[in-house]
Design brief:
The complex is a heterodimer of chains A (about 110) and B (about 120).
Chain A: E1 9-13, E2 18-23, E3 32-38, E4 45-50, E5 53-56, E6 61-64, E7 70-75, E8 84-91, E9 106-111
Parallel strand pairs in A: 1-9
Antiparallel strand pairs in A: 2-7, 3-4, 3-8, 5-6, 6-7, 8-9
Chain B: E1 4-7, E2 10-13, E3 19-25, E4 31-37, E5 43-51, E6 54-57, E7 64-66, E8 76-78, E9 87-94, E10 106-107, E11 111-115
Parallel strand pairs in B: 2-11
Antiparallel strand pairs in B: 1-3, 3-8, 4-5, 4-9, 5-6, 7-8, 9-10, 9-11
Classes of the chains: A mainly beta (about 110), B mainly beta (about 120).
């Protein structure tokens, strides 16, 4: 069963690139990797999803090595508004894979 | 304007009372979910529904009940059997399907329930 491990918290400064790594040693062949962002008192918001190699959108990049046992969310040039909790999820769907769950996430604090 | 709505935003109840939280979506999504979030914690899955008139227990279903009589609506009842009901409750929806990757979940604004 795929479980994920992320750092509990990270600090950064405005304008820096932030990389948040998620470990998922038991990822299954059909599993995708998905990242969500959550601001206080709001529901999470989808950021990016990938299966292998690299995925990039207007918000972030997702790097997945060949063995897929980890993944890295990269946020370019963060601003204060990127302060949030970031969740890494691994699985095919919530009802097909019991481990496609939201863990505690990584609390990112961006400082001026 | 498509989206998912939850009401009310804040809810106060006395201990021992049942309370129902509303969740409505006009995204034409088949799947809907209820999560609970405690301070500083991640989201925990309470119930989910893949299709009308069908729903499944998640990880922490005890003390909760749901119904799915319409595609658009998935109300959650917090019963008196739930020992610690004070929490932030989030509803989400997604398109259905079990292959081709995870389906992006769209979340509502949440309901903060406080039991006095």
């Amino acid at each position: 069963l795929a479980k994920t491990t992320q750092p509990i918290s990270m600090d950064s400064y405005e304008g820096q690139e932030v990389n948040i790594t998620c470990s998922h040693n038991n990822i299954a062949t059909n599993d995708y990797i998905t990242w969500y962002q959550q601001f206080p008192s709001q529901g999470p918001r989808f950021i990016i999803q990938g299966y292998k190699t690299k995925v990039t959108n207007e918000v972030a990049s997702l790097f997945i090595p060949a063995d897929r046992k980890s993944s890295t969310l990269s946020l370019p040039r963060v601003s204060l508004s990127d302060t949030a909790v970031y969740y890494c999820l691994v699985g095919d769907s919530p009802y097909n894979n019991n481990d496609m769950r939201f863990g505690a996430g990584t609390r990112l604090t961006v400082k001026p | 304007d498509g989206g998912i709505t939850q009401s009310p935003k804040y809810l106060f109840r006395k201990e021992g009372q049942n309370v129902t939280l509303s969740c409505e979506q006009n995204l034409n999504h088949d799947a809907m979910y209820w999560y609970r979030q405690d301070p500083g914690q991640g989201l925990r899955l309470i119930y989910y529904s893949q299709i009308v008139n069908d729903f499944q227990k998640g990880d922490i279903a005890e003390g909760y009940s749901v119904s799915r009589e319409k595609k658009e609506s998935f109300p959650l009842t917090v019963t008196s059997a739930q020992k610690n009901p004070t929490a932030f409750y989030l509803c989400a929806s997604s398109i259905s399907g079990t292959s081709g990757g995870q389906r992006e979940q769209f979340f509502g604004p949440g309901t903060r329930l406080t039991v006095l």
